[in-house]
Specification:
Elements (H helix, E strand, L loop, with lengths): L3 E8 L7 H12 L1 H19 L7 H8 L3 H13 L3 E9 L3 E8 L5 H6 L1 H11 L1 H10 L16 H4 L13 H11 L4 E2 L2 H14 L3 H9 L2 E3 L4 E3 L1 H12 L26 H13 L2 H9 L5 H13 L4 H14 L6 H13 L5 H9 L5 H6 L2 H5 L10
Parallel strand pairs: 1-3, 4-6
Antiparallel strand pairs: 2-3, 5-6
Helix pairs in contact: 1-2, 1-6, 2-4, 6-7, 10-12, 10-13, 13-16, 16-17, 16-18
Length: 388
Amino acid sequence: MLFNVKYVIYKDYGYTLNYELLYDLYSPIVGSEAINLYINLYHESNKQVKIAGVSSYLKDFNDACGHSPIKFSELRSKLEAIGLLQTYLQENINQTEMIYHFLIKQPLSFDNFINNQKYRYLLIKSIGQLNYEKLEYMYMPSRIPSDSTNVSSTFEMIFDNKELSEVKTFNFDKLYQNIAKNTSTLIVISNECKAIIESYYQNYNLSESEIEHIIYGCIVSTENTFEVDQDLLSLKFHEYINSAKNVSVFSNINLHRNAAMFVKNLSSEQIQTIFNEYKNLNSEQYLSAIYKTPLSSDEKETIEVLRNSYKLSDYVINLLVDFTIFKTNGKLNRTYICKIAKTVNGLNLNTLTDIYNFFRFKNKDINELNAKSSSELFKQEAIDWENI
């Protein structure tokens, strides 16, 4: 017996259709037909509220839209892939019916959309760099007069709760639940690994499913259990992010860099988060993320000199870039950074920890520094910035 295929459409309370975002951001990627289907689903959801209790058949909807079942499936898949639609299926209801449940998702804001590097790449590929820059200008925040002062309260000013500083954005409890559904083995995720996950989740707008998929490729066996390998996790994230072709400018990343790291003690977790960003971005990407603009030819050439002439790894260059910019009032001074690079090579400093300690303290044996506690380190003589 043939199934009677019905459907129900859902959308969040208070949702209103934003045509500008749909046509400016999504339509160039998935096409106008897919966007029109999305709009038809939206309007159909309003009708279903009025005719509650009356069965809605998918064939009737497709006929009204002029879609064959194959065409509907093709367009629906595009909407699902770009995050505008989720589809759930109930089968074999009373052995005669099946019901599709369509959940309409709101379009991302412009900032959230372009923070997803894959979406941003596909958009630029579809409309071209010039039209993309026009969109950036159109969606630019209101231009407040330059002589005005921002007197808005910050979150920390109003919600002064030390506990909130420990709250992570990523939902690790849900991650553990999802992993438990697929394996009966306990998987250990260290705090260092959680910091890496949190950094990528915040900076690259990765979905929970993308992160979960990456984690499955980083699980290693130990004596008593299974755990996520920190180095492998960094590598897999790095490979995944860079799989989007030609994406070398990361102007929308919010880095955790902190000038205080060179003059006082930060927590080990803060330092590790900063070091993870040094390791996970190449030097062009890191400098672009600092300035929030594409790099100039001179800036690119400076990085190439450090990489090719001084044989420095990108993560070392990123640390040198941070130190130099903090030291030279926001500018990348090639003479100064090359002087530091020569000193680093001359002292045979290879690891981030060694170089970081050198930047903070002068004329102290690196191994001795590493062996001391943080409180002991802080008592050491501070570096003479001008005479490096």
